Here is the input.
Amino acid sequence: MINDRFLRACRREPVDCTPVWFMRQAGRYMAEYRSLRAKHSMLELCKTPELAAQVTLQPIDRFPLDAAIIFADILLPLEPMGLSLEFAEGEGPVIHNPVRNQADVDRLKIIDGGELEYVAEAIRQARLALNGRVPLIGFAGAPFTLASYAIEGGSSRNYLLTKQMMYGEPKTWHQLMDKFARVITGYLRRQIKAGAQAIQLFDSWVGCLSIGDYIEYVMPHVQLIFEGLKREGVPMIHFGTGTSAMLRQMREAGGDVIGIDWRIHLDEAWSTVGHDVAVQGNLDPLALYAPLHEIERRVADILRRAGGRPGHIFNLGHGILPTTPIDHVAATIEMVHTLSQRSGT
Amino acid sequence: MINDRFLRACRREPVDCTPVWFMRQAGRYMAEYRSLRAKHSMLELCKTPELAAQVTLQPIDRFPLDAAIIFADILLPLEPMGLSLEFAEGEGPVIHNPVRNQADVDRLKIIDGGELEYVAEAIRQARLALNGRVPLIGFAGAPFTLASYAIEGGSSRNYLLTKQMMYGEPKTWHQLMDKFARVITGYLRRQIKAGAQAIQLFDSWVGCLSIGDYIEYVMPHVQLIFEGLKREGVPMIHFGTGTSAMLRQMREAGGDVIGIDWRIHLDEAWSTVGHDVAVQGNLDPLALYAPLHEIERRVADILRRAGGRPGHIFNLGHGILPTTPIDHVAATIEMVHTLSQRSGT
Here is the structure.
C-alpha cells in the first residue's frame, strides 16, 4: 500500500497528516461522472462492475484523496430481497411495493449476497485498478435506514409509517430488522472477501429516533452486524446524521470509527464516544460552497478540535452535494493535508 | 385565571400537576378544524380574527389542555414585508419571489406589526372567549427559520441557498437577519399588548447548523429579540428541533423556557441548559400513533426525567401531525396530568 494513512487512522495509529475522503466523492459534482450518467442509469452503473469500478476511481485519479469507496447504493440489497426499486429522475429512490405488514416482511427473501455479486466484482476490479494507491472502502445501509426506505417507499420527512410499524407492530418490526441485519452482514462479508479493506455502515436517518427507541428497536440489530464482522479484521465505520445525542449508544452498538456530523463539535463528540475509538468527520457538506478562506477557517477548527490525536479521519458530515464547486473540493483536500502536517515525520 | 399551571411552570413555581399543551394543537387532526378548513383557506383562517380565535379555542373546548396558542402561521410577516406567500395544497408554503441577493434584502420592508393587526385582534377575541380558562400563548418564527423559507422559497431538505448566502454574502445575510429580528420583536410586542400571556419563538430549522455557525450567524439576532421583549414581563419560550448539541447556545441566546425535541433525554437536556430555566417537551409527535400502553411508558419516562422539579411543561418535540388519532391526544393529556399529580396538593 502506497498510502495507508486512512487505515492507520482507523486503527488510531500515528499518521504523517490527517487522511481525508468524502462521502459520495464519486458523484455528480464531477464532470467525468456526469458524462457517464448521461449514458447509463444509476442502476446500470451500479450493476456493471467495469463502470462501477471506473466511477470509483474517478475522484482518486483527480484528487489526492486517502481512500476510495466502492460506487454502489445502499438500496441495492432491496431488489434481490423482493422489492421493486427505481431511481426516478429528480425524485430519489422509489420502492413500488413497500413493506407495510407482517405478510410483506414474511415475503422478503433472506439473500446470501450472491445476488449482489456485481458489487463484489466491482470491488475486485477497483482494487486492481487502484493498484495499492489508496485503500478501498465497502459499505452498506444499516437496518433502520433500509427499513425506513422499504416501509415509506422512498425518502421521508417524518418517518410516520416506519415509526407506526415500530411502535404498533414491534414483532413485525424486529423481524424486518433481523432480516436486514442478516442480509447486510453477509453482503458486507462478501465485500470484504472481494477486497474491501474497510467497511462503512450507513445509518443515515437513525437520528430521527429518541435514544430510548434507538436502544430498543435498532441497537441489537446493528450489534449483530458488527459482531458478525469482527473476525474479518477490517476497520468498520459506523455513520449516522442528526445523532448528536445518541453517539454513546451508536458507539456501544459497534464500530472502530464513529462518523460524526457537523451539528456537534468534534472534540465534544470524541469525548462522548470515547478516545478508544476513532472518529470521522465533520465538515458541513454545505460549507464546501463557502469562499475558500471560510472553508479554511472551518477545516482548521476541526483539525484543532481533533487535537492531533491519532484516530481522526477528515470527512464531511454527510454526502457531498451534486452542485459543489469542484475547485473547492480540491482546495479542501489540500487544506486538510497541509494544515494537519505533523512536523518531523 | 382559573388554570395557571402553565404560567407557574414557565416561572419555575410549584404546580399541582405538570401542565401540557401541544404544538399545532389547533389543527387538522381535529374534525372541527377540518370542517372550517373545508370552507376557508389557511390564510383566510389566519386573517379573519373571529375564525382564528374560534380555531384557537377548538382544542381547549375539547381537551383539558393547560394553555391555548393563537392560531396563526410563522410565515405571516413575510407578506407585508413584500414577499408573495402561498400555501399550496399538499405542498406546504411557497414564496414566489424569494430573497436571493442584496437587492432583494434591500427591498424587504421593515413593518411595525400594524400590518398584522389581524393577529392582535384574534388574540383579543381569543382572550375574551377563553375567559381566563387557560393562558394564551402568542408566537413568531425566529429569524433563521424565516430566512430559510424566504431564501429557499419554501421548505428545504439541506438549506443550500440559505447557507450559500450565509457563507458567501455574510453582510447581506446579517442585514436580512436584522430585518427579521426587528420585525419579529415588534410583532411579538404587539401580540403581548393585545393579550398574549406568554410567547414562543419558533426556530424550527436552526438544528441544521453547526454550533459555530449558530453563534456567528444566528445568535446575535435572536438575542436582540429576547432582549427587546424582556421588559414586557411575559414568559418567553425558545424552541428548535435537531438542536441536541446547541442547547447551551440557544439558552444563551435567550428565553425563560427552552423547547427540547425528542432526540435527547429530558434530564440531560435540562442539565445542559441549566436548572435556572424551565424546559418544554419532549415526546416524539410520532409516539402519539403508538398503542396507549406504549404512549404511557414514554410519558412516564419523560416525567421521571423531569423529576418533579418545578419548571417542566409537557409538550411534543415538534408539531402534532394531521393524522394523529384524536383519542390518543385525549389519553396523553390525561396521562400527563394523572402521572404527575403531586401528592398532598
Observations:
- The domain at 5-339 of chain A is CATH 3.20.20.210 (TIM Barrel).
- Chain A has a mean pLDDT of 96.
